[in-house]
Amino acid sequence: MLLFVLVLLVACQAASHDVIPKGPVTQLEPVPKDSIRIVALGTGTPDVRKAAVATSYLIQLGNGENFLFDLGTGSYINLVATGVPQDSLTKVFLSHLHSDHIADLASLYIGAMFGRTHAWEVWGPSGERPEFGTGAVIKGLSQFLAWDTHSRRKIDLIGRSDDGDKVIAHEFDYAAKNQVIYSRNGVTVTSTPVDHYATAGPVALRLDWNGLSITYSGDTKPTQTLVDLATRDKGTDVLLLQSMGPILDFAALPHNSQYLLNTSHITPTQAGAVLQDISPRLAAVHHLTVNDASRVAIVSDIRTGYPASALHIAEDLDVFEVSKDQIAIRKRLVPSTSWGYWHSDGEGVHAASGSGAAAMPFTRHSILAGLGLS
Ligand SMILES: [Zn+2]
Fold first, then answer.
1. Could you give the angle at the alpha carbon of 276 between the alpha carbons of 94 and 215, nearest 5°?
2. 7-21, 229-243, 336-350: which is most confident
3. How many angstroms separate the alpha carbon of residue 322 from the centre of ligand 1?
4. How far is ligand 1, taken at its centre, from the CA of residue 242, in Å?
5. I need a surface site. Which of 30, 223, 266, 298 has the fewest CB within 10 A?
6. How close is the Cα of 252 to the center of ligand 1, in Å?
7. CA 74 to ligand 1 centroid distance, Å
8. Domains identified in the chain and CATH numbers
9. Cα 99 to ligand 1 centre (Å)
């Protein structure tokens, strides 16, 4: 009898493995319960392009939780387009404080305030002085948007007294290696210092949940700390690796400046060596100056050191579905006129289809009634 039960349990476990559908992902498709879905919201450089905005990844867990790793210039547009409920976008982790990684915090602060009923939280590194740390950035952001949040609480959020207009900063010591900076509900996020523009602060981040892990390099030159973070325990499943340069057209800059620029990122050739050291199940490389002309050279350079394993040059709205058995690369379909979701709990507005009429939070009748005109 005991043997029968054991066999049944094993069979049930095998049957419970997530099946990842093929083809593009729509916002109606839930994340399989034991899997992680990564959506590339921005894969470009500070020189944003319509097809490649600055860096950001949305990491969605099968338990329903969402995590944002960086939120660079332009990435909020892709985030909204995914239709992820705004009340679930309350956890943001920053790798460093360059604008191509944090500029759209302002958009999330205000844009998601309509659907957010709880304070949102930002985890980010300290700097060499207090005014260079994440706490100072968030304090400054709150001040920058003080009039905006104050007025919108009167205009757009009539009658609400929740904490959707509040933000909490969690500044951690950037220099601590392999430091757990977040641990809730079976999810951990670990930080380690990396080396970017020879300035204190930048870190790489790793998220672990349900036996799966995602490592995000932030911006860095090749560093052993990144390799150590990504290869801990059983090693990371997915490595989201920054690569850029070398940049050859800064002849007007002093030699020292050129040198710093070209030694503060991971070049495609160096990326091959880093990937070989880490050997993830999937390597996705972003932050590249990639276009049709440069793509072949970039891939060739990476492949000199990383000849055969799974490699993907990430583009905006790529999706990586990660289960214990399988990693699938898909594409997120987003309607270009989507309003996104305002609420996750069934209240208010659900306008993911992009219908302008459906997106309005109040009916004509309710507005007129509120004004005493109906
Ligand atoms: Zn960057």
1. 20
2. 229-243
3. 25
4. 8
5. 30
6. 22
7. 13
8. 29-334 (3.60.15.10)
9. 8
